[in-house]
Design a protein that fits this description.
Layout: E1 14-16, E2 19-21, E3 25-27, H1 39-51, E4 56-63, E5 76-77, H2 81-95, E6 100-106, E7 122-123, E8 137-138, H3 141-160, E9 165-170, H4 175-180, H5 195-198, H6 200-213, E10 218-224, H7 233-243, E11 249-253, H8 257-260, H9 273-276, H10 279-283, E12 286-289, H11 296-304, E13 310-313, H12 315-319, H13 323-328, H14 343-349, E14 385-388, H15 392-403, E15 408-411, H16 420-424, H17 435-445, E16 450-453, H18 460-465, E17 470-473, E18 477-479, H19 503-507, E19 516-521, H20 527-537, E20 541-545, H21 561-570, E21 574-576, E22 579-585, E23 588-593, E24 599-603, E25 606-610, E26 613-615, H22 618-623, E27 630-633, H23 643-656
Parallel strand pairs: 3-4, 3-13, 4-5, 4-6, 6-9, 7-8, 9-10, 10-11, 11-12, 12-13, 14-15, 14-17, 15-16, 17-27, 19-20, 19-25, 20-21
Antiparallel strand pairs: 1-2, 18-26, 22-23, 23-24
Helix pairs in contact: 1-2, 3-6, 15-17, 15-23, 20-21
Bound molecules: adenosine-5'-diphosphate and iron/sulfur cluster.
Iron/sulfur cluster binds at residues 315, 318-319, 338-344, 356-358.
């Protein structure tokens, strides 16, 4: 398909300082959980983005010195010669596809706990480190001079590593943002006090960096357009204007990560525009910003209305590294849109390499050799594969198998495909999650290799009657009703009868009798909180009970926790934390304090246990002895997990189908 001319401006090159970006697609710096321990993984992943058409591909936050150590969250570094070699691999991989490589020089200041380097954290003040009970060293003039030198040397190392764009990173509550913030910076010297003084260090680093590498590298700054407390729009605008002569690209945001990195549950496309729209006119320089842009129309409109020069993206580039190429080639239906679940970000917090719900190849480029757009062709394509179950695992397996050339039959018991994704997208705010289903179905519906069979609940005999020699069982799982979970390895006494409803039942339309409902969350992700909100919206008197200290604790990793908890509070859901459900008699639930063992009673006409799931594996069990060439169970039928697990497992099964497999490569130090 030819490119839609409306999108031509997205493909115009733009000069930024001494270099020229080939187009307007700017992959902003984003964490990957790979950091300096996985340089080959990083290089391969960033290289794929460049191959997919991102004109500028940036690193994650890149530490300039051991005093900026975010362990346990992985980060890149440019501390020494070894780091130059490793980071050069990334620049090389990006250059191989004609894109510019950028690096975001980073000092975490008081926020870096330095648990690995054992250096004292640094800060404008002696402040608490994040999540740790120790404090930063108040920087004196000598410390500031030293910091400037570390930053300058790191910029020079970035130049040696052949990067084209270098960032001064003055946002996201790290060191420079700490200096800028009047609440944190209480200094009485000329680095504290009024904004001119508080911004002195930012200006000095820009000057230093410009002198050190400005001849060959474009200079970008990542900075917020408001003060930390949300005020100061005019003061910041004046500052951006003042520093504009030193800057080639402004990468701008606001001091609310919950909006910038907002999950789709709370934040939709382009939420920053109203805040940052003035920067281009104020500074006269190129501007980039993010907005989880997945619609080419929105992107083109950002350029034509003069809001942005570059479409900034982290998540959209993770969900679809080939998004720019698909727009360029008019393949709009093939764009795999980010669903805004923030599972990509979660894994950085978990200290593990990135993964993505929508894109199963993300993070697998090096270790498994997976490419988002290419899969090796099958040698034997004549033998059909029957995939039973059309949830995320089955849909992904069917699509990838077909791309390998297989003939695929996909049978789904329900009228609608999508399995758990169809159900979960009915929870408040989660409609975008249906993209996991819709993108795959859109591809499958026009795929001549695939036959779709909705309304087809398959028994073992029916499976064998298809005569497909290969069967993949993707029958998913169902929520347990008996309360088994982390705190109750066996059933909870009294959890039976029609007043106990599972999440599956509620999401397929059943409702408790009118009155009080206890939603018991022993799982910890979003399901119980979502159901509590849904039921509260419908007028039920809802109590949310959890043995954890917080509502939906896993959502701390996906930048949702505090807003989820706030939402339940706002909707008058009664929250009982640090307590587990021990038993139920009639409408009396006995709950036990997780610390003291003290018991109290909670009245609830109905109970919704959200504790654990039972794999639906009976079909797989029944087929084990059948005369099939291959049989495999995947996704939640194998081990209930995240949607990302199911998609990944489906993809893996398709890649491994009738193909030799080898263990993923490991990046590690091997002693001589
Ligand atoms: P996963 O996340 O592993 O893809 P899901 O629970 O989302 O799992 O999807 C499983 C799908 O399998 C559901 O849509 C369910 O209706 C379907 N399914 C379960 N058992 C059968 C069966 N015997 N025949 C056909 N489809 C089935
Ligand atoms: Fe988007 Fe979720 Fe993928 Fe992150 S993990 S890029 S939020 S789909």
């Amino acid at each position: 398909m030819p490119r839609d001319p409306r999108f031509d401006p997205l493909f115009e090159p733009l000069k930024i300082g001494p270099v020229t970006a080939p187009n307007r697609f700017w992959q902003v710096p984003h964490c990957t959980g790979m950091g300096n321990q996985h340089p080959a993984s990083l290089a391969a992943m960033r290289g794929v983005k460049a191959e997919g058409g991102w004109g500028v591909v940036n690193s994650e936050y890149c530490s300039i010195h051991p005093t900026s150590d975010d362990t346990t969250a992985p980060y890149a570094s440019l501390w020494d010669e070894g780091d130059i070699r490793n980071m050069a691999r990334m620049a090389e991989a990006v250059h191989a596809h004609g894109a510019l490589a950028g690096v975001e020089l980073w000092h975490g200041g008081a926020r870096s706990g330095n648990v690995l380097s054992r250096e004292a954290p640094l800060g404008p003040e002696s402040m608490m480190a994040e999540n740790q009970p120790w404090q930063s060293q108040r920087m004196d003039r000598q410390d500031i001079a030293q910091l400037r030198e570390w930053h300058r040397l790191a910029a020079l190392r970035a130049k040696v590593a052949d990067f084209d764009v270098v960032y001064v990173y003055a946002a996201h509550t790290y060191l420079l943002a700490q200096f800028l913030d009047s609440a944190q910076n209480l200094r009485s010297d000329n680095y504290g006090g009024d904004f001119l003084n508080r911004s002195r260090l930012v200006r000095e680093l820009l000057e230093d960096t410009r002198i050190a590498v400005g001849d060959r590298m474009a200079l970008a700054i990542r900075i917020e357009v408001l003060h930390e407390d949300g005020s100061g729009a005019e003061e910041r605008a004046r500052f951006l204007q003042d520093i504009a002569p030193l800057v080639d690209v402004f990468d701008v945001t606001i001091p609310d990560y919950g909006v910038e990195m907002g999950p789709s549950r709370f934040v939709k496309e382009a939420p920053l525009e109203a805040h940052i729209a003035h920067v281009r006119a104020t500074t006269g320089k190129s501007v980039v910003s993010v907005g989880r842009f997945t619609s080419p129309e929105t992107m083109a409109s950002q350029l034509s209305r003069g809001v942005l020069d570059f479409i900034g993206a982290a998540r959209p580039s993770i969900a679809d590294p080939f998004l720019p190429s698909k727009i360029a080639e008019g393949r709009m239906d093939e764009i795999r849109e980010c669903i805004g679940c923030n599972i990509c970000y979660a894994h950085d917090g978990l200290g593990a390499p990135i993964r993505c719900t929508q894109n199963p190849t993300m993070g697998e480029e090096y270790r498994s050799g997976w490419h988002p757009e290419r899969t090796p062709a099958l040698k034997k394509t004549s033998e059909p594969v029957l995939v039973v179950g059309g949830g995320p695992a089955g849909l992904e397996a069917a699509l990838t198998l077909s791309r390998r050339g297989a003939t695929v039959l996909l049978a789904e018991a329900d009228a609608e495909f999508g399995g758990r994704v169809t159900l979960e997208s009915r929870l408040p705010g989660l409609s975008e999650w249906a993209r996991v289903r819709d993108w795959r179905l859109t591809q499958l519906r026009t795929d001549p290799n695939v036959s779709l069979y909705p309304n087809s609940h398959m028994t073992p005999d029916e499976v064998l009657a298809t005569e497909a020699p290969h069967v993949i069982v993707a029958t998913g799982s169902h929520w347990r009703s008996d309360g088994r979970g982390r705190h109750a390895p066996s059933a909870i006494l009294g959890l039976s009868g029609h007043t106990v409803l599972t999440p599956d039942q509620i999401l397929t339309g059943r409702r408790p009798d009118v009155g009080s409902v206890l939603v018991y969350d022993d799982e910890g992700y979003h399901m119980a909180a979502g159901l509590a909100e849904l039921l509260a919206d419908e007028g039920y008197d809802v109590t949310y009970l959890t043995p954890a200290a917080l509502v939906a604790p896993f959502t701390s990793y996906t930048v949702e926790q505090s807003r989820l908890q706030a939402r339940l509070i706002e909707k008058n859901v009664r929250i009982l934390a640090n307590q587990y459900l021990s038993r139920r008699e009639g409408s009396t639930c006995t709950v036990t304090c997780a610390f003291t063992g003290n018991e109290t009673s909670v009245a609830a006409a109905s109970v919704v246990p959200v504790t654990s799931r039972e794999p639906s594996e009976s079909l797989w069990q029944a087929l084990k002895a059948a005369p099939l060439s291959t049989l495999r169970r995947i996704g939640d039928a194998r081990a209930p997990g995240l949607i990302a697990h199911a998609v990944h497992d489906g993809h893996r099964a398709a890649r491994e189908h009738l193909s030799p497999t080898s263990a993923p490569l490991r990046e590690r130090v091997i002693l001589a």
